[in-house]
Amino acid sequence: MVQHEFKVNTQWSGGREAVGQLNGDVLDEQISIPSGLGGNGTGTNPDELLVSAASSCYIISLAAVLERSGFNNIDIQQSSIGTAVFENAKFRMDNIIHYPVIEVETTQKDSLVRKLPKLLKVADNNCMISNSIKGNVTVKIEPKIK
User: Is 8 helix (H, G, I), strand (E, B) or coil?
Assistant: First the structure.
């Protein structure tokens, strides 16, 4: 088994209205409870970070799958939306929908149309974050070809 470690440090002083700090190898960001949930709204928050992790993992996986399938000049613009719900007195992320807009060489568009459903599944299966949240969060992909 291959194992990788990803280390982050967090710091928080105070209650719900406070602002904390998140530091990783690259990340250096303030964190707080979102203002829509009664918090400070400064910096980022765990919900945004979860959707960001899922989105960035999926777009990287999709680009790699497209490249391995022989597509050239790949350009993907993606938005992702995570929907959280409050049920049974708990907040949880219910679903994340990725909306990739994929562009490849004009001569390869027909091939992409034919292969895309399978490639989307392969990318999802290769995404560590998708694999980590399966069974708890529904992940949907709604692509467009440009």
Answer: coil
